[in-house]
Records
---
Amino acid sequence: MNKRLHTRLAFIIIGISTCILLISTVSVILATHYHISLFHDQAAGMNHDVSQLNYHLEQALIQSIIWTFAGSIILAVLIGFYVANRISKPLVDMKQAAERMSDGQLDARVKIEGKNELAELGNSLNELAKQLHKQEQLRVTMTEDIAHELRTPLTTLKSHMRAFEDGIWEPTPERIHSCYEEIERLTKMVVELEDLTHMESPAFQLERNEEPLKSMIEQGVDLVSAAFHEKKVDLSFSCSPNIRIFADRNRMIQILVNLLTNALKFTPENGNVRIEVLEEQQDVLMTIQDSGSGIVPEDLPFIFERFYRADKSRNRRTGGSGLGLTIVKRLVNAHSGHVWAESGKQGTTFYIRLSI
Ligand code: ADP
């Protein structure tokens, strides 16, 4: 393809230049011929011996035409190949880079020169390669993370089942319940992973409507209040009924439930969790504050990352998948909002800023 495109372009350019040269040469010959005939007619009338002059004139014309023609052809060939090479090289480079990418070498890039349309095409191709590379890295880390997350519970379940089967362990209700909890945790993780994958797909869309924020908070609080009651953790909120936000109601409730479930998980008995909403100029700031165990500063920057758990052994026991906050962040971002956390020894506060 490299040679073909290059040669074809060269032949097109050479062909066009040769045609132009041929036409100009033929017209020079015809014009010269016409003038020489005129000169002959006039010289015959004057009765002079002009044969020598005639001969040199003709020779001069013929030679100059031949040399011009030959020189122009050589020039056309050289320019043709040079121009063809200039035009075809970036295209050929792009084709080779695309071939390397399709072979799996996603670090292949096109060398960009200049600022023309071809350079823009090269930039787009490089951008595409960068995105593909990123997606591929995500896919690999995601697969590794999932495999890592599944390995421990599956190994535990397998050893428990083997112990029951071999009669080493009595299948007491407690032991069966612990297996059941592990399966529950796995099921939750699969559901959350599916949800997260859906949210990260380009087809994901929110169903946004303008609604009072207070009613969303009320519904979220309703969903978790029984669990709070059971653990004797106080849950309260304050939000002006006038605040309306343009948001996806179900997703906002999902955000709240995730944050409140975490708050409950990490808050001891008789603790408290409070939701407050502050109206700012163009935004609304919602805070969810708990009196729980808090998050150490080293963990704080990572808690929104997929499968991140601050205290892995404890969180495994508390049933955490490490996906709850990743989902929260994805959903808040989808609402063009911002979520972050601050934590000290006196519990944790999650902040969500949304535009009104
Ligand atoms: P998980 O399902 O494990 O709770 P999340 O993504 O919801 O996963 O949270 C990630 C980690 O952040 C948790 O494992 C926990 O260590 C920490 N975390 C989240 N919320 C709180 C909180 N309110 N108090 C203390 N730690 C928290």
---
Amino acid sequence: MKSILKTMTITALLAAQAAGASAQADGFQYTDERFADLQMLRYKVEGFDALSLRQKTFIYYLQEAALLGRDILFDQNGKYNLRIRKTLETIYTDFQGDRRSADFAALEVYLKRVWFSSGIHHHYGSEKFVPGFSEAFFRTQVKTLPAFKQLVADFGYRNADAFLEEICPVIFNPEVMPKRVNLAAGADLVLTSAGNYYDGVTQAEAEAFYKAQKKADDPRPVMYGMNSRLVKKDGRVQEVKWTTSGLYGEALAPIVAYLNRARQFAEDKDQQAVIDRLVEFYQTGDLHTFDAYTILWAENTAPLVDFVNGFTESYGDPLGMKASWESIVNFKDLEATKRTETLSANAQWFEDHSPVDARFKKDEVKGISAKVITAAILGGDLYPSTAIGINLPNSDWVRREHGSKSVTIGNLTDAYNKAAKGTGFSAEFALGKEELDLMEAYADLTDDLHTDLHECLGHGSGRLLPGVDSDSLKAYGSTIEEARADLFGLYYLADPKLQELGLVPDAQAYKAQYYSYMMNGLMTQLVRIQPGNDIEEAHMRNRALIARWAFENGKADNVVELVKRDGKTYVRINDYEKLRGLFGRLLAEVQRVKSEGDYAGARKLVEDYGVKVDPVLHQEILDRYAHLNLAPYKGFINPVYTAERDREGNIVGVTLSYTEGYAEQMLRYSRDYATLPYVNR
Ligand code: ZN
């Protein structure tokens, strides 16, 4: 499961972009170009140089394996995507006319969006892109550029006209393949989704096919259907598996070759066994082997370097079964992981000193040691748009019996934070210099710490009273649970214990998080809500609940105010210590609600404080945000790894550079990592 917003105050995500100028800190260029609704960023692979040659070599081979799967995702996202990508790239590189013309400029933007989304549908909303260039322009290019003579034959068409007849409606007709993933109730979700996971099969046929496979009362079910396309062939519904000798074999075979090269440089025997099982799975497609692989992977926690490579998340399938291909190679950030280990080691102290009723506390509490990692490469469904936290594997029974790995990707969070500097976002919404200085000095650190407290201690603290059903809060359960973890973090951020543990530099630091949390919960998170809508997402509800509850309940003491200046609303915190007291009170109440399974209490808290939006304030925030002209979506350009070899071909050094441009990178990937045929059946 990916967490994109789960663990991070969204200020940096909302702000991350540089208008005009590019954010540069510590001599590193964190932002790159912007187009459509997208801002490209770069991440720094801090600590790579300090790794051993063995580890660098391991990473080098793994990142090759990560890039080799790129075509798989393009094909999974839509059956015409590889042909469209190649066509657009050919026009982009071979075009003879005026490159400043409106049609060419629009084609360039469209191609950049196709690269970003690995297909012709938006990566987030999944709606089909509307091209800004004319169909006539597109047709002329295909008919006149010499390269297309051979290409249309490679695509499998007898001539350019036959190709255009099939491809033009896919690109230009808004009624053809309008959504990649259609979740609208009432429709046949399979037939109306443009993703390439099913062919000629209805939703009912797909559901019946898998229902017949599932065994009743199987305590350890495999992830049915995750590694295949479901097709109707010879009148029969059947799976075509993605294996080295099956569909996508042209990509999976070289991936396996690189995994095997990497294997010799793995950090321990267990990690070699992980690779062996993954290779076996790619070769056989056997789902029991997949489970065995994920168990070995989840339990292999000693190595510094780790990776995900494979069919992983199922957000692209309207039925939630078929898994898109993705990869990330990473290594542990030892310095940042020390932070989470310090917190986990002191978990009992935090439990004992929390402001909740003694009846609701755990006698013995174990911190979860989530690790902080540094991403070295992003591939497939994690590139260029990515998650900042990952929790895998996804199989319920594997998680239950063997645990899971929960990671925060530190250098991506850091890049978002650095890129947010100088965008004018904080200057627009923060009250004044005092608040800006506070956030400038401490917000990056306290944001990370708040996340750590939330993940490592917050969720694991407290207990239910005997006999209370863990599902008793029903639809309000996840908001209450997130509020509990957030409040635990907020309360302890201001505790002298954190200074004693060496986690914060002084007694002021927490104020940065308090200010940005209240500003976000009372105002700025509303930029993600459409006018007239309620707050629905659990994390957003929890932030509104906490901020508004503290605001309302601190009114008598004037703890937090909303003040107006030049017609704009700002948050003013008059008493930070009293605000901490309010967070403590609410934590005690939220824990009581959870421990007692008090459904009515949960509903009241959430409905009174977490759902409704003040329409006047909302419109004001939307207008102010619009003026900043920030791109709502971000993605990352990868660094480039280069291996130095001796005469025998052994790697003797690996260097990395950050200068490759976005289009340059995409064109290189399309040249060097184009593994699949244009048509995959
Ligand atoms: Zn959480």
